[in-house]
Write a structure and sequence with these properties.
The chain has 342 residues and is α/β, with parallel strands linked by helices. It folds into 2 domains: 4-165 and 262-336, 3-Layer(aba) Sandwich (Rossmann fold), CATH 3.40.50.1820; 168-258, Rna Polymerase Sigma Factor, Chain: A (Orthogonal Bundle). Helices cover 36% and strands 17% of the residues. It is found in: Cytoplasm.
Length: 342
């Protein structure tokens, strides 16, 4: 399906107090809204993904999958601060006629959700059957269910948290330091910071997988080898792969957005924030996730009324939310089999 663009030609205030003169949101839709208008599945994507969910969440979304265009009206919007069409650091600032680069305003998860909800209103959707997201997408889904409980019937969050941990913030800061060490980041050009971004992605991969994953997939059979290891090649390959499809300015912006996530901000406490959710909720953890350990998902489930907690046993760490689609399908089908509490 071709991507669509929603242009909001009015000032868009963000949580920091700054204002974007206008924004645009790139999004994909699949399928059609049924006559009852109760088949909307809204996907909130993670850090470097885009709005084409049928491409990056294969096995869960697509023809013959649990979420398919034949049955569902599937929507995924690219997030604020990204480089895939929605307003972000590479967008032109109408006030200067130049890209924002580092001057792009700080964006929080709540700002992303505010943009999602503008798109929801534009599409004239009053009821969302399910909002689903993993990682940064799960942070958005949680926040949206808190802000707009009247619009969301079911909430599914995977490998995410109620507030970003010092551990997660530490990983993000280390990656930003790698980008800032690349002097081209400060030269205000579209490919600025590319070498730093490559290093940052290599760091991030260590948190997306784990010791056991690398021990198996990057194991060396050649006992005499002293250099050019498989793990080294893998880090270089994955770093270059991201550089070819993403942008350092967007990466810095979005990693800071993730750091800002805290559902308790201005709500008394994290527990009080989670207590505002009224959707029927499924929280899924991944046994081997070292970036968002299962303790974080159990905490979410404990503080949302009548939430269900399930756990995926995966070899792939945090990335398991994209890979273990068979297990996810079974868990979600079982979740839907229980009547929604009114």
């Amino acid at each position: 399906m071709p991507q669509e663009i929603f242009k909001y030609p009015f000032p868009f205030g963000v949580e920091s107090g700054q204002t974007l003169p206008e924004i645009q949101i790139t999004y994909h839709t699949y399928g059609k809204l049924n006559p009852e208008k109760n088949n909307v599945i809204w996907v909130c994507h993670a850090l470097t993904a885009n709005s084409d969910v049928l491409d990056w969440w294969k096995g869960l979304f697509g023809e013959q999958n649990l979420f398919n265009p034949e049955e569902h009206f599937i929507i995924c919007a690219n997030i604020l601060g990204s480089c895939y069409g929605t307003t972000g650091p590479l967008s032109v600032n109408p006030g200067t006629g130049q890209p924002y680069y580092q001057d792009f305003p700080p964006i929080t998860i709540r700002d992303m959700v505010k943009a999602h909800d503008l798109l929801r209103q534009h599409l004239e959707i009053e009821k969302i059957h399910t909002v689903i997201g993993g990682s940064l997408g799960g942070q958005q889904a949680l926040e949206w269910a808190i802000q707009k409980p009247q619009h969301i019937q079911n909430l599914i969050v995977v490998a995410t948290n109620a507030y970003h941990s010092p551990w997660g913030i530490g990983f993000n800061e280390a990656q930003r330091l790698a980008i800032f060490a690349d002097e081209t980041y400060f030269q205000h050009k579209p490919d600025g910071g590319s070498k730093g971004l490559k290093a940052a992605r290599a760091m991030a991969l260590l948190s997306y997988r784990n010791y056991d994953t690398y021990s198996k997939t990057q194991f060396e059979n050649d006992l005499a080898k002293t250099d050019n290891f498989r793990a080294s090649s893998y880090q270089n390959y994955q770093g270059e792969k991201l550089v070819n499809r993403f942008n350092a300015y967007a990466y810095v912006s979005l990693s800071k957005t993730m750091d800002s996530h805290n559902v308790g901000r201005h709500r008394g406490s994290v527990e009080e924030g989670l207590g505002l959710i009224r959707a029927k909720t499924l929280v899924v953890g991944i046994s081997s996730d070292v970036l968002f350990p299962v303790s974080e998902q159990r905490y979410i489930a404990q503080h949302i009324n009548n939430a269900a907690y399930r756990e995926i046993d995966s070899f792939y760490g945090h990335d398991g939310f994209l890979i273990e689609t068979g297990q996810l399908t079974q868990i979600i089908e079982a979740f839907y089999g229980v009547p929604v509490e009114k």
